[in-house]
């Protein structure tokens, strides 16, 4: 469920038509995100899940799986 929602948020933020999103998809290298896209994605995640994402998490997010893992640990 979390993975599907994260994919939906990514598709709203990035022009990735035709590309498959997997847990191993790298935000920058594979999906073409830049720092502004990542910040907007984090803001969307915060709004969607009503959480505040730790700033330290930003430097450790490289893949879709990183986001899903973080949410699984922090969303009740």
Please tell me about this protein's structure.
The protein has 4 helices and no strands. The radius of gyration is 11 Å and the shape is globular. It has one domain: Orthogonal Bundle (Non-ribosomal Peptide Synthetase Peptidyl Carrier Protein, Chain A).
Provide tags for this entry.
single chain, 76 residues, mainly alpha, Non-ribosomal Peptide Synthetase Peptidyl Carrier Protein, Chain A, 4 helices, 55% helix, globular
The helix-and-strand class reads mainly alpha
What about the largest sheet? none
CATH homologous superfamily name? ACP-like
Taken in chain order, the helices and strands follow as HHHH
Number of strands: 0
Strand percent estimate: under 5%
Question: In the residues, how many domains can be counted?
Answer: 1
Question: What characteristic shape results from the CA principal axes?
Answer: globular
Query: Architecture in CATH?
Result: Orthogonal Bundle
- Which consecutive residue ranges, at least 5 long each, have pLDDT under 50? none
On the 0 to 100 scale, the average pLDDT is 91
Helicity, as a percent range: 55-70%
Number of helices: 4
Q: What is the C-level CATH assignment? A: Mainly Alpha
Q: For the record, give the distance between the C-alpha atoms at the N and C termini, rounded to a whole number.
A: 13 Å
Question: Whole-number radius of gyration?
Answer: 11 Å
Find the CATH topology. Answer: Non-ribosomal Peptide Synthetase Peptidyl Carrier Protein, Chain A
């Amino acid at each position: 469920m979390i993975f599907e929602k994260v994919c939906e948020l990514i598709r709203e933020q990035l022009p990735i038509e035709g590309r498959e999103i997997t847990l191993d998809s790298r935000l920058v290298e594979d999906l073409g995100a830049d720092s502004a896209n990542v910040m907007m994605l984090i803001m969307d995640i915060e709004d969607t899940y009503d959480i505040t994402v730790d700033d330290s998490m930003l430097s450790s997010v490289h893949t879709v799986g990183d986001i899903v893992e973080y949410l699984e640990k922090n969303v009740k």
